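Table S2 (text version). Query chain:
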Amino acid sequence: MGIIDSRPALVLGITVLVNAQPDMTFIGSGRSVRELLSAGTTPDVVLVDPAIADPQAQAAAVTALLSRGIGVLLFTDAARARSTSEHPEPGAVETIRKTDPLHRVIAGIRAAQRSRSGESSAGVEIRNPHSAPGVTLSPREAEVLELYATGATAAHVAHALGITRNTVVDHIKRIRLKYIAAGRPAFTKVDLFRRAVEDGLVPDEPA
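Corresponding structure-token output:
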């Protein structure tokens, strides 16, 4: 496991907690995805605190990690986690609260790892965009997909685009139906990310 954060005390605490587990090893930290991965070791799961970056930078970090098959665990404040739990989004990136007890933090890490393994075993791969059946999205649907697929919650997408959360959810439902109709189902958030990559809405290798 790794962590994207610049606060020594938090990094040290997570290091001790993770290394105390018989089936986990902490491999490093960084202030960005590039810095974390620069040592050449790829973690299975990365802990990301959304508070350390603006929404666009956070989405870019999540995109970079997911595109490499790395599980993502958001480590957020209680208020943000509550809004997510009250409106669960299938396939969303795993989230834990900073106030959660230690056993729940570990459980969250394991859940992110299981999600990563499950996606890999299911064979969800990025298809050749020239052979994949095309899907026509409206300009608004494309905006929603670009933000949502790269890590933002429906509430964050709504805020960024100046629309309601329910409208975002409706857009996501229509987007999923269009991909199903094209024979390219996207049942999870990671599936949506891969479809967005295939259709050129987000890069598969962020800078």
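Notes on Table S2: Residues 102-121 form the longest helix (20 residues). Strands lie at 2-4, 28-30, 45-48, 71-76, 94-97.
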